[in-house]
Amino acid sequence: MGHSITSLNVVVLCPLLLPLLILLFLSPPPTSATNFPSIQAKKLINDLNLFPHQDINIVRDSDATIEPFSKKKIVEKKLRFLSLVGPDGISVEDLGHRAGYYPIQHSHAARMFYFFFKSRNSEKDPVVIWLSGGPGCSSELALFYENGPFKVANNMSLELNDYGWDKVSNLLYVDQPTGTGFSYSTDSRDVRHDETGVSNDLYDFLQAFFAEHPEYATNDFFITGESYAGHYIPALAARVRKGNKAKEGIHIKLKGFAIGDGLTDPGIQYKAYPDYALDMGIIQQADHDRINKVLVPACELAIKLCGTDGKIACAASFFVCNNIFISILSRAGDINYYDIRKKCEGSLCYDFSNVEKFLNRKPVREALGVGDIEFVSCSTTVYQAMLLDCMRNFEVGIPTLLEDGINMLIYVGEYDLMGNWLGNSRWVHAMKWSGQKEFGASPEVPFTVDDSEAGLLKTYGPLSFLKVHNAGHMVPMDQPKAALEMLKKWTQGTLSKSGADTENSVVEM
Prior knowledge:
By secondary structure, the chain is an alpha/beta fold. The chain has 17 helices and 16 strands. Helix 1 runs parallel beside helix 9, helix 5 packs across helix 6 and helix 8 runs antiparallel to helix 9. It is globular, with a radius of gyration of 22 Å. The N terminus and C terminus are likely disordered.
């Protein structure tokens, strides 16, 4: 079959062609029950030592103990966590942090849960929203283990995080899509299946948030996140730009968006898996050659068909392409695919269980105002619902944002296999925009923190790419000081300057 296939032919042949591709190309490892999305999602979730009681938060009206849905505005509570007292006797209440629900305007009955943390420096600092990936994993995982104001100790008390991103920004964490974390609906039709639904919900939330807090509406605004947020973030940035251009509501001062270890252009990134694995010594040359000969061409074709058909082809491409990853892991042994320096003991690559224990405690739930709503750390139902979205290319909308002068930062931990730096670097360099050649010709320079090289940085105009040393998939957890310095410099427009200058270095507070 040549490259001259027409769109009509692709649509007609997809239902027959893609199962054939699976049969022809996927040997070994064979397609098995363990490859199905629900089982794969549960394995990924359990690998983080997370065992949510429910797959998704779809509840009965009688179970919802917060404000009635008919109130189309933010319902917010000032946080009163009695278990946290800082080194100077500072309580959470003194910091002015809040949590709340927003009834999503264009939904049947969905409510989006969020945390808001005032900057420890100045209310005039930028507003930064954080989106976790999955798809379907709660942003509280990042809040308590990566870059939030505090962390959960083993005794279920809270400890202030010296490198929380609230030191340089007013910080928002949102549980999304609907059914994730504490976000819920009483109507299953509110489960989202694509970035249009996800980005519209987030845009509605931002409009409501800035209406409730007009004092922050004139601040610079940045979108951040990691992993599958490589899909969410460009979609939300484009939605904010569209809303601003059309003057749909409150103008949001979007200045930039940052993706950490993300999945943005699957066609390029999946092809990079065997190359990264070989370079890092995870697989042998013979394994690499076989994967490139058998599995990669099948993945490329499946993703191409996904871009044309968008339905059955996208579902099939998920199975086809994920066999590249599965094939690498079958040869790599018990490595932690989030950080290849580490081994997985059993299935527990990380232990994030404290977040579930903490957020399901009755005093904490009362402080948050969530009533009887269960906390769903990661939702397999949301994961499956977004299956057709997974293999879509979200690089395509980014050039327009760059041409508008909106800054983009791609940062990646050098030891992450899942969203590895090589695949991210390749799609960034392949992206067609007015500065493509100049960015490609720009030198890599050290990104320094405390006079030590913390990464390698490449910048041209609004585009920056940072490979972070000694970090895996979760850069703010592995290198918290470097991540905070990165955020501060990027939001201030000084990231391309040396991190060693004392004037711009992070000041301990």
